[in-house]
Design goal:
The protein is built from six helices and six strands. The chain is of the alpha+beta class. α2 packs parallel to α4. The longest helix is centred in the middle third of the chain and has 12 residues, at about 40-50. GO terms for molecular function: 2 iron, 2 sulfur cluster binding; metal ion binding.
Length: about 130
């Protein structure tokens, strides 16, 4: 909150970025949209979330907003897009999300948010044989 002056209130400002990362449990800054990702790494993030059944998340297209594109890099101190935030915390980019997906950490992190990964149900089905 508080009054913003001197052009500090733009979409790339720390305050603006912080509002965005906190507006939803799962927030992704990407190139393009989940329906139409415009880079392979952004696409990979969307696919990983989809595998876990996470369809309800906020995606921000940084190509639409150069201020935000720079602002989010400053905010996370991470030079590349996409960027994934869980519960307002910066998680990482595509490679980190992929690693978490492979080692099971992502299932655990989603569980903390109250999101049950679809992969858990998929594993249950395999056990039934």
């Amino acid at each position: 909150g508080g009054a913003e002056g001197g052009g500090a209130g733009g979409s790339g400002s720390r305050e603006a970025v912080e509002r965005l990362v906190r507006e939803h449990p799962v927030v992704v800054f990407m190139k393009g949209s989940p329906a139409q990702p415009l880079c392979g790494f952004s696409n990979a993030v969307v696919q990983i979330l989809r595998l876990h059944g996470v369809e309800d998340y906020r995606a921000h297209d940084v190509l639409q907003d150069p201020d935000l594109r720079q602002g989010i890099k400053n905010y996370s101190n991470w030079p590349t897009i996409p960027q994934v935030y869980l519960n307002g915390e910066f998680v990482g980019g595509c490679d980190i999300l992929l690693q978490m997906h492979q080692n099971g950490d992502l299932v655990e992190e989603l569980k903390k948010l109250g999101i049950r990964s679809a992969l858990l149900d998929a594993e249950k089905d395999q056990d039934k044989k």
